[in-house]
Write a structure and sequence with these properties.
The protein is mainly alpha-helical. It is 73% helix and 2% strand. A hairpin with a 2-residue loop joins strand 2 and strand 3.
Amino acid sequence: MNPGGAILGSLGRRRLVWALGLAICFAPTIQAASVQDIANTDWGEQLVRFFSFRDASLRYALVGSVLLGLSCGLLGSFIVVRRMALVGDALSHAVLPGVALGFLWNMSKDPWAIFVGAVVAGLAGTAMVSALTRTTRLKEDTALGLVLATFFAVGICLVTMIQRLPTGNKSGLDKFLFGQAAALGGDDVSLMAIVTLVAVTLVGLFYKELLATSFDPGFARSSGIPAEWVHHGLMLMLAASTVIALQAVGVVLVSAMLITPAATAYLLTDRMHRMLLLASGCGVLAGVTGAFFSFVGRGLPTGPLMVIGASTVFTCAYFMGPRHGVIARWWRHRQSAARTERENTLKALYHIWENGGFRDVGTTLADLAERRKETIDEALGRSRMLAGHGFATVDSNVVYFTPEGRQRAAEIVRNHRLWELYLTNSANIAPDHVHDDAERIEHVLGETVVRELERRLNYATVDPHGKSIPGPRDIHRDAAVRGGDGGVRNPEETS
């Protein structure tokens, strides 16, 4: 049983209960969460209005979505590689009390007051998590769950108190729970632009420090990099980016915009600088997609559509990624299995040819089927597969090597027998226990490794079972010798 998984599962269930409770409590106030609410016309006209950017509210929502995607994708990349995804989730919930306190500061929805209050609350939450992990036996995930629950509960209580004030229903704080991109104004977009610009600048200036502390904190400390200060600075920027995202996607979904674009980029590249660019691009694409479908649709909320857009891009990367995608990995596995099967058939043909004293010019399908312990039809299918790759020819139920097929067969046999000899001599493994391991490794040994094995084994010519090991000269010489009928003759017959 995985305790961490149980904690995360419990945490996910609690978040679901909170979200359902909030949806019930604020149901009358969260209906207008769509950019489309600013213009209630038909679908075609909405499309024209979107690409003409005539509506000021649309421009604010679109620019805000782009800035949100850029900052969240950029900073989320460092969260993903540091394995701190749950930190973003806890931080997004921990800022809610700061949002309420920022409003209470001057009883107005001042973006700067709310921003400062939320950032302070977020930093207080991360500091509490750090204190709990340092002073108690609790692990970080447990401390994050405690802080998330406590701060979010305090935030709900404060928001509820504000809603009961005489002007509370007009405060608009409920929009921070589920997001409303249509409510973005000029001040909100200006604040988002400043935070995004600062985040991009700091990442550019301290990229090496962030890179070192993300992948090897010990090396960073030994190199004189103040790893703790870098970490706290990242948390500060993460808190700021989380706050500017609340107005668009809300407390409940902001962690998805931090993690999903970065997770998508993580599947597409192994280089950090490329990951930053891809994550930012995926975040921007998700933001624009959410704004587009929210505007041209009817009653579709912008924030959830952004998250759905980001999840759709992630799904595409998960299945169709060029390296780590499911389809690509399946295709590589299939190709590897097919290549292994071809090479095993070539090896079987070589063994038959070797047992015959290298004098037969071909191998019958019956002999191949007996060697492979399969039917004649299966042997014929494998022989035709070899013929399709230029390794053999099939004529009247007789299989003949081509020069390329003979060379590859000798290479596979050489790899197998060299590895058996290496395990026997260097690892002191009994000769009757090395065959299965050699069966697997023979297909992946490269020429460089083979040359090193030959050198370490003093260019041995016999394996532990007394069978000859084809050498490089034998392989290339035998591959060049063909019979007039398409088979491969014994090199001794040509000398």
